[in-house]
Amino acid sequence: MNELFTLEGKVALVTGAAGLLGREHALSLARAGASVVVADLDERPCTELARALTAEHGVRCLGLALDITDPEAVHAAEERVRRELGPVDVLVNNAAIDDKFMPGDLERSRFEHYSLERFRRSLDVNVTGTFLCCQAFGAPMAERGRGSIINVASTYGLVAPDQSLYQRPDGTQAFFKSAAYPTTKAAVLGFTRFLASYFGPRGVRVNALCPGGVEAGQEPWFREAYARRVPLGRMADRADYHGVVVFLASDASAYMTGATLVVDGGFTAW
């Protein structure tokens, strides 16, 4: 059984790796034996995390700055990784924009007032960035006849946001979840199915992961409201996705492609 889940000798790249779940994805892959490329916009936290993973797990890791919306930067990253660690076997497309609104931004969060600039930026990062990374890292996988691509989507790619979750206990709306995030995450699911059918005959598997909301210091009223909305009665812990990512990256899921793996505590079950 351990042989099914091992990633020893593999090279994995995680985009958005300095973020909330990106760090956890990188950690889980390193624990399974992979050499991990930690990629995000800011090189410093990536380098620090790569060093920590190497020290703790004894695998060669690399931190690099990467703007996934820049085609030249993405292709340059592929060349550098191949030169320093070897070809990428596992690609985790985790980088994404999820709008955050400050107190007083209620009107700007309304669909009627949501800016075109924000919408386009989300499309550029969440969809186009995933497209570019799959081109640059997926094509070489297909040439070698093997590889696993994991596109991180969201429960909001499957269902509409429940706007009542963002109401304070006094009934006032803190903000509205924007149209950009569910629209782009639904696009990621469609793109995953396309790429699975396109790359499948050449041995590359492409699956989507739909995580639920992760506890990360939100206001108590929000955490409580979210917990009531979930059959398991809580928000996700960061570690809840460790095993899932290793499963999708490894031979444990060798006959799985074009699938959407929903890990949300039951949020989309009702």
Describe this structure in words.
The protein contains nine helices and seven strands; from the N terminus they run H-E-H-E-H-E-H-E-H-H-E-H-E-H-H-E. It has about 270 residues and is an alpha/beta fold. The protein has one domain: 3-Layer(aba) Sandwich (Rossmann fold). A seven-stranded parallel sheet has the order 3-2-1-4-5-6-7, sandwiched between helices. It is globular, with a radius of gyration of 18 Å. The relative contact order is 0.15.
How are the strands of the largest sheet arranged?
3-2-1-4-5-6-7
As a percent range, the share of helical residues equals: 40-55%
The CATH architecture can be named as 3-Layer(aba) Sandwich
Instruction: Describe the global form.
Output: globular
Spans of at least 5 consecutive residues whose pLDDT stays below 50 are: none
Structural class: alpha/beta
Tally of contiguous helical segments: 9
Task: Give the termini distance in whole angstroms.
Answer: 34 Å
- The tally of structural domains comes to 1
Average pLDDT works out at: 97
What's the helix-strand series? Answer: HEHEHEHEHHEHEHHE
Question: How are the SSEs placed, and which strands pair?
Answer:
Blueprint lengths: L1 H4 L5 E5 L4 H12 L3 E6 L2 H15 L4 E4 L5 H14 L5 E4 L12 H4 L6 H29 L2 E6 L27 H20 L4 E8 L8 H9 L13 H8 L10 E4 L7
Parallel strand pairs: 1-2, 1-4, 2-3, 4-5, 5-6, 6-7
Relevant terms:
270 residues, Rossmann fold, 9 helices, 43% helix
Gist?
It contains 9 helices and 7 strands; from the N terminus they run αβαβαβαβααβαβααβ. Strand 5, helix 7 and strand 6 form a beta-alpha-beta unit.
